[in-house]
Design a protein that fits this description.
The radius of gyration is 29 Å and the shape is elongated. The strands form 6 sheets. Strands 7-8-9 form a 3-stranded antiparallel beta sheet, with no helix packed on it. It has a two-stranded antiparallel ribbon with strand order 1-2. It has a two-stranded antiparallel ribbon with strand order 3-4. With 218 residues, the protein is mainly beta. The chain contains 3 helices and 13 strands, in the order αβββββββββββααββ. Strand 5 and strand 6 form a beta hairpin. Its main location: secreted. It is found in: Secreted. It comes from Machaerirhynchus nigripectus.
């Protein structure tokens, strides 16, 4: 009934389609007749003036009863995730802190570290490596600090700690560095021919990346 009242047949559209603002694509109106500029987030909408569905927007009539009219809003998605009181849409990438980056996926979220998780063994020029927070920098950094005398007396040579055969040890593989496509995961392990702690990497893929739209000639 709404379509019959608002839509005229045949369609009468302007010869020249409108010029849309940046980020607003040309779409067919609610009658499927003329091309119009899709309404963006927070803009008013109705049956004819549709929202940008490519951004997941729908015309939200929940505020229309208050006299403010319908506006374009994100469609309610039960597969969103809530972190620290904020709701993220499925597929949205966010950073709870400068040290990690997360993505909302299927009601949960996956995170990858943005700081290197390497291990530094004692060396003659750096007998006591220590990781410290640097003011103004997000990721901690390694510094070399002289050990106390009592620590030196009780310390055992590194060669004694790395006997052969040694007991295998390793951390869990980290999350994939890429949220789509090929990335890499890291871990710290001594499973090598020298039985030494080292950072190891391997290729990984969470999911394939969406196909890019075909390029049109200028």
């Amino acid at each position: 009934q709404v379509c019959a009242q608002l839509c005229r047949r045949p369609c009468y559209c302007p010869w020249v389609p409108p010029r849309c603002p940046r980020g607003s694509p040309l779409v067919l109106d609610g009658c499927g007749c003329c091309k119009i500029c899709a309404r963006r987030l927070g803009e008013p909408c109705d049956f004819l003036h549709v929202c940008d569905q490519s951004q997941g927007l729908v015309c939200d009539y929940s505020s229309a009863s208050a006299g403010t009219g319908a506006t374009c809003n994100f469609e309610d998605d039960e597969e969103g995730c809530e972190v620290n009181g904020r709701v993220y849409r499925d597929g949205e990438i966010f950073q709870p802190s400068c040290k990690i980056q997360c993505q909302c996926l299927d009601g949960g979220f996956n995170c990858i570290p943005l700081c290197q998780e390497d291990v530094r063994l004692p060396t003659p020029d750096c007998p006591y490596p220590r990781r410290v927070e640097i003011p103004g920098k997000c990721c901690p950094e390694w510094i070399c600090q002289a050990q106390d005398q009592h620590l030196l007396r009780d310390a055992r040579p590194v060669s004694l700690l790395l006997r052969f055969p040694c007991q295998e040890w390793g951390t869990e593989w980290s999350a994939c560095s890429a949220t789509c496509g090929v990335g890499f995961a890291t871990r710290v392990s001594n499973q090598n021919r020298y039985c030494r702690l080292e950072t190891q990497r391997r290729l990984c893929m969470v999911r394939p990346c969406p196909a890019l739209p075909a390029a049109f000639p200028a």
